Amino acid sequence: MRCLVTGISGFAGSHLAEYLLSLGLPVFGIIRSHRSNFENINHIKNNLTLYEADLTDRSAVDYVIKNFVGKFLYNEYLIFHLAAQSFVKESFDMPLDTFNNNIIGTLNLLESVRTIAPEIKILVIGSSEEYGYVYPDEIPITENNPLRPMSPYAVSKVCCDMMAQEYSMRKVNPLRIVITRGFNHSGKRRTEVFAESTFAKQIVERKLGISTGPILVGNLTAQRDITHVKDMVRGYYFALTQCPSGEVYNICSSYTISMEDVLGKLQDVAGFKVDTEVDPSRLRPSDVPILYGSAKKFQDVTGWKPEYNIDDICSDLIEYWTEKLSKNIANTDMTIQIQEAHGG
Questions:
Q1: How much is the pLDDT for 332?
Q2: Are 145 and 131 spatial neighbours (Cβ–Cβ below 8 Å)?
């Protein structure tokens, strides 16, 4: 197999690259520009082949696909399409950018594969946000649940989802596409724009004395089904290698927890309790009250099941931010010492 990961330098993309490399597979990736932040993949960059391309530029995408397939020496070519604007709150502020990145980027990728190498198998990553408002009698959420998106991000993902299904169901030259609707996932390298990661960062900042005052929070009543990112990316690989084309699968832990309880677990792991304060800027114009999924369809086909739980996620987040912020403190202290030594 030969694997291409769009969004490889992102949170899930970097973990997926690690997993694919651990299987001994050649891994290629798309980065947006040579100025991209490589922090997430610095430790594996020498083992990757990276292409610079903006997915909204069709000619750039064509160039990547042609080079990726090369002389067709492999039995199977796999594309894991993770690149997206995935921050829900930001999608309310910049809906056009969200639609352009997510919808046009996906369309260009599918069209490029269709015209250059239609035998490639593609994983299109959807989101549990597509389900949007879910009624109490619809829990746990299955793949047949109505889609009621409640944000521009969710709308963009519904469009990509439907687009992928249409391309896979064409009577003439259908593409080989599997669609997943991943529920929340987290772990090391999760950026601070997401609730559980910003909670962890703020707790560690206060424990290390970097900041003081209460932890700023948004809606703590929201309930989420959170999967460890290592389980999620393993699920992506299972989906693309074991599931039939044209099908949609939920990937989730099938366990729900309120953001208030996540915050409590993070404080327990850190051994540091802090008061909280609601920050209006962290509240969404509309928020999905509960996302609690069923992964039964996916598990029945692949045998996948989570190997980590919410406690592992919280431990990883506290460890990640402790290492990252402690390193920042050490670097700052060293800079001060150098300045003092030179009379600065």
A1: 59
A2: yes
The boundaries of the domain holding residue 281 are 195-224+255-289+308-341
Pairing of strands 248-251, 227-228: unpaired
Which residues lie closer than 8 Å to 56 by C-beta, 6 or more apart? 100, 101, 104, 105, 108
Model confidence over 176-205: pLDDT tens digits?
999 999 999 999 999 999 999 999 999 999
pLDDT at 45: 94
Nearest to 1 by CA among 81, 50, 68, 82: 68
User: Is 90 contained in some domain?
Assistant: yes
The C-alpha atoms of residue 311 and residue 329 are separated, in whole angstroms, by: 27
Q: Which residues contact 333 (CB under 8 A, 6 or more apart)?
A: none
pTM of the model: 0.93
CA dist., res. 251 & res. 262, Å (int): 20
Residue 52 phi, psi (nearest 5): -95, 120
Q: Quick one: 124 and 268 in the same domain?
A: no
* Helix 310-341 vs helix 259-270: crossing angle, to nearest 10: 50
Nearest to 76, CA basis, from 127, 18, 14, 20: 20
Q: Bridge partners of 168?
A: none
In a domain, 337, yes or no: yes
User: For residue range 61-77, what is the model confidence (pLDDT) as tens digits?
Assistant: 999 999 999 877 778 99
DSSP string, 111-126: HHHHHH-TT-EEEEEE
CB 168 within 8 A of CB 283: no
